[in-house]
Design brief:
The protein is α+β, with helices and mostly antiparallel strands. It has 13 helices and 10 strands. The chain has 3 domains: about 100 residues, no CATH class; about 100 residues, Orthogonal Bundle (DNA polymerase, domain 1); about 160 residues, hpI Integrase, Chain A.
């Protein structure tokens, strides 16, 4: 027996935050509370309202309007609300848990973290996506008192099976750890009082070991093959972008952050002083009663990735690079030197170069080549030709000499010095 939709206005939940319950359409993206009288009973759901001392009221999903057949069921729901014991049903697997007084779920913690902390973070859009699409569907139904480190490890194993990079998995786990740290009241800027998390089990989840020895760089033969395919590309920007990354040895975000005031054609220098952030959170707004973050796409951010304010690159001895920049300036209608991202064209060029290499019997070339590997290639060539670490540090904008240890085995400088010592000891000056 379903409820007559004409009588819905009499139901004690048809006012936002009023009464014991509230009625919401199943699809809140298309319909609002005002549309309820027009909807079928199976398109309207019942949510119980439980006030909380911290954060917004808890609104657990209870049932559909069509599943309220009589007075007995209504009285049962009222009793559950008074006892603050509610059945939370996961839509995916049908798991049912009982939330006792004072308990909260991981999903509630994620909501609180998204609303409170994320608006202040630079990469808030990516963090929210990880929390909403990875962690909430898997462990959102668990209470903060019952969740274990094994539950988090199980999700991490699923990410491993998807063959994600170790660094990517660590970033996603760290995002959840930050939420739990906030829930435990350990966030210095946003202190949650009283704390929701008594035992932070996320601390027991260890990060994966990173393969920092991966130094993918192009050999001269590979570079030749790739350049041939780049020249055949229909993209107007691909060759310029690749040549610049290879010669400047800069990071991708640094190149994208270059504006025309960064290029001094008279002094033949390029100033790296900002990066292009994929998204920036500028605040939050209320949409249909829910807090939503406001994201601004592709915003320039002052300073470089390593925290330095900037660095200067002299291109006097790179005439081809200077000529390319002058030509782009004449044709550019944008303030950015490289406003486009020829990602698809680049992948196509790498794929074709790989196919040709395999057809010719060369197995050295691999499709596992990314934008950042141009930076490795640039610095590797410098090391192979005896450029000292301090010069390499200035060229690549590294924070410390320690960052250049991965290229030390490519430099003949040290062995050249040791060979000279041995020659003196063993053979004198002759």
């Amino acid at each position: 027996m379903s409820i007559n939709l004409k009588d819905l206005k009499k139901f004690p939940g048809n006012k936002d935050l009023g009464g014991d319950f509230m009625l919401l359409p199943v699809d809140t993206r298309k319909y609002s509370v005002k549309d309820i009288p027009k909807l079928q009973p199976n398109r309207v759901q019942v949510r119980a309202i439980i006030p909380q001392s911290v954060g917004r009221p808890l609104r657990p999903f209870l049932c559909l309007v069509s599943d309220l057949p009589d007075k007995d069921q209504t009285e049962r729901l009222i009793t559950l609300r008074k006892e603050k014991r509610l059945e939370l049903v996961s839509k995916d697997d049908g798991k049912t848990i009982i939330v006792k007084p004072g308990e909260r779920t991981v999903a509630q913690l994620i909501n609180q973290y998204v609303d409170t902390v994320l608006p202040s973070l630079k990469n808030s859009e990516r963090y929210e996506k990880d929390l909403r699409e990875i962690w909430e569907p898997e462990i959102g139904h668990l209470t903060l008192n019952e969740i274990t480190a094994d539950d988090i490890e199980d999700v991490k194993d699923k990410l491993i099976n998807k063959e994600l990079a170790a660094s990517s998995i660590n970033n996603r786990v760290q995002c959840l750890k930050s939420a739990f740290r906030f829930g435990a009241g350990k966030n210095k800027k946003f202190r949650l009082r009283p704390a929701w998390v008594n035992n932070d089990v996320s601390k027991d989840v260890e990060a994966m070991d990173l393969d920092n020895e991966r130094n993918r760089y192009l050999s001269p033969d590979e570079l030749k093959r790739l350049r041939e395919q780049i020249k055949l590309s229909t993209s107007d920007d691909l060759e310029d972008v690749c040549d610049f990354l290879l010669a400047a040895g800069c990071r991708w975000s640094e190149m994208q952050g270059l504006t025309w005031d960064c290029f001094d054609k008279d002094q033949n220098v390029i100033l790296f002083n900002k990066v292009l952030s994929r998204s920036v959170c500028s605040g939050k707004e209320i949409v249909r009663g829910k807090t939503k973050l406001i994201h601004e796409k592709n915003q320039l951010r002052k300073g470089l990735k390593n925290g330095s304010k900037g660095r200067v690159l002299d291109i006097e001895n790179l005439p081809k690079l200077r000529t390319m920049l002058l030509e782009r300036k004449l044709e550019s209608a944008s303030n950015l030197i490289f406003p486009k991202n020829p990602r698809t064209a680049f992948r196509t060029a790498v794929k074709r170069a790989t196919e040709i290499a395999k057809a010719e019997g060369s197995v050295s070339f691999s499709e596992s080549f990314h934008w950042h590997d141009f930076r490795h290639t640039c610095l590797s060539y410098l090391a192979q030709n005896g450029v000292d670490e301090w010069t390499m540090k200035a060229h690549g904008g590294h924070e410390s000499l320690q960052s250049l240890e991965r290229y030390s085995h490519l430099s003949p400088k040290q062995t050249r010095k040791s060979s000279a010592v041995l020659n003196e000891v063993l053979y004198g000056n002759g």
